[in-house]
Amino acid sequence: MSEAMAAAIAEGRTSLGIELGSTNIKACLIGPDHQVLATGTHGWENQFVDRLWTYSEEAIWAGLQASFAALAADVKKRHGVELTKVGALGFSAMMHGYLAFDAAGKLLVPFRTWRNTNTERAAAELTKTLGFNFPLRWSASHLYQAVIDNEPHVGNVAFITTLAGFVHWRLTGQKVIGVGDASGMFPIDAATHDYDAPMMKRFGEMVKAHKPALDAPKLFPKVLVAGEDAGSLTAEGAKLLDPTGKLTVGIPVCPPEGDAGTGMVATNAVAPRTGNISAGTSIFAMVVLEKPLTTVHEELDIVTTPGGDLVAMVHCNNGASELGTWAGVFTEFAKAIGGKSDGNAVFGALFEAALKGEADGGGLLAYNYLAGEPITGLSEGRPLVVRTPGSRLTLGNFMRTQLYAAFGTLSLGMNVLHGEGVKLDSMFAHGGMFKTAGVAQRLLAAAIGAPVTVGDTASEGGAWGIAVLAEYLRSGKGKVLGDYLGERVFAGAKLDVAKPDAEDVKGYGAWLKQYEAGLAIQKAAVEAIS
């Protein structure tokens, strides 16, 4: 253990971030150099209750306490000191959803998470009337659906917020929210970094048409940007987070944020013309805009960075899962003939083969649709490999096509941005498929027509990201968030940049044209195969 680290912890020259994800609640303590000092994790799962996805209040507090206790134990084990104070604190969580409270602060109905899709009518009406894309998962969609369904609790609603906003409120007494998280509740005005005033006024009128006594604009939390004062840990809050009573009262707390915003911080993607791409079970891109888009696009969610810059989000339901399934098949084959059955070795060999494939995939098409895909109008998915008799079926072409398939739908969404004149200087990519150096990264650069960066970032992800935002509150006075990240956090990071290769770009463009035409095959497969 380092005496310097132990001293920083004992003296409170640290920042703590806690993020409530969909399957884990993770706590991350960092030092003044933004390096991870200790972590703590607690696993949890949502429940399907009365046909809605939720987490109970009890699970929220038990999970926060367990993650903090695990962090404190890790601090003691690694550094030999008790965790009694930190320099700054921050909370983040999965975005969107609906937490509604009465005037006394009582939760009126169980927390409705982003995963619920019962808000279709509300989202459609809001999108049409307000001229802005309201996804099903947004808090305003949830509230308006409850209103038009005339749910009994609606007459008693005095405050609504997100999961991060709820935790922050209980621990500080402040009904505030970070602008990035707020942008998943209601549209944000890029100039004011607050809810869009004309849109909010019209929303209030729509609500009053059903519930005259309900003043909807007054139900939302106050919006703050990164670095602003969001209150401090109260005695009640300290006890709620650390029932042992060791944690000091009065710790400054940064604005609560959503997981999209903390992911952008963790990948240094908060400046205009930058963004990030996360590839896992699903794949999505976040692109920071220089100016608002001119047209409403249902393929795009418009949110913001924690600093308040507008972000276009392209979210695809299908990512790298089908690629992983094929790798599993090849692993089985390798084992059957007495070869290496190590999954990582097989992945590496398959990815290297992809680079030897033809730039257009040799006439092969693949669709990775295990689930439905809203961007291409599909309610269900049927994974397919399609080729003409004259196509060239080789391992290289097959694997290149499978990698292309992981990016195909994303490209269609990104093309909407290109059509709006959006420019990209760089995108940071993260996810397991980028572990094999230079392969998926190079092909992604061709798919989006922009340089793609991969590199070492904290494996704690969003929890580290909200810890960095807490440290920004503590020590970033006078610095713009993007400059702070570039100069103080990522200045020494090891990064590898792949620029689009002209031949790859041409080949991928030809492949994507066939891919888009072939969506009719995918639709027919959904209808024909139950």
SSE layout and pairings?
Blueprint: H1 3-11, E1 15-20, E2 24-30, E3 36-43, E4 47-49, E5 52-54, H2 57-79, E6 88-93, E7 99-101, H3 120-130, H4 139-148, E8 159-161, H5 163-172, E9 176-178, H6 179-182, E10 188-189, E11 194-195, H7 197-210, E12 222-224, H8 235-241, E13 257-258, H9 259-266, E14 274-279, E15 283-288, E16 300-304, E17 310-316, H10 321-336, H11 343-356, E18 364-367, E19 384-387, H12 395-419, E20 426-430, H13 440-448, E21 452-455, H14 462-475, H15 481-489, E22 495-498, H16 502-517, H17 519-528
Parallel strand pairs: 1-6, 6-13, 9-12, 14-20, 20-21
Antiparallel strand pairs: 1-2, 2-3, 4-5, 7-8, 10-11, 14-15, 15-17, 16-17, 18-19, 21-22
Helix pairs in contact: 3-4, 9-14, 10-11, 11-12, 12-13, 12-16, 13-16
State the gist of this model.
The chain is an alpha/beta fold.
Overall description:
By secondary structure, the protein is α/β, with parallel strands linked by helices. The chain has a domain at 96-161 and 186-219: 2-Layer Sandwich (Nucleotidyltransferase, domain 5), CATH 3.30.420. Helix content is 39%, strand content 18%. It has 17 helices and 22 strands. It has helices spanning 3-11, 57-79, 120-130, 139-148, 163-172, 179-182, 197-210, 235-241, 259-266, 321-336, 343-356, 395-419, 440-448, 462-475, 481-489, 502-517, 519-528; strands at residues 15-20, 24-30, 36-43, 47-49, 52-54, 88-93, 99-101, 159-161, 176-178, 188-189, 194-195, 222-224, 257-258, 274-279, 283-288, 300-304, 310-316, 364-367, 384-387, 426-430, 452-455, 495-498. The strands form 7 sheets. A 7-stranded mixed β-sheet has the order 16-17-15-14-20-21-22, sandwiched between helices. A hairpin with a 5-residue loop joins strand 2 (24-30) and strand 3. The chain is globular and about 70 Å long.
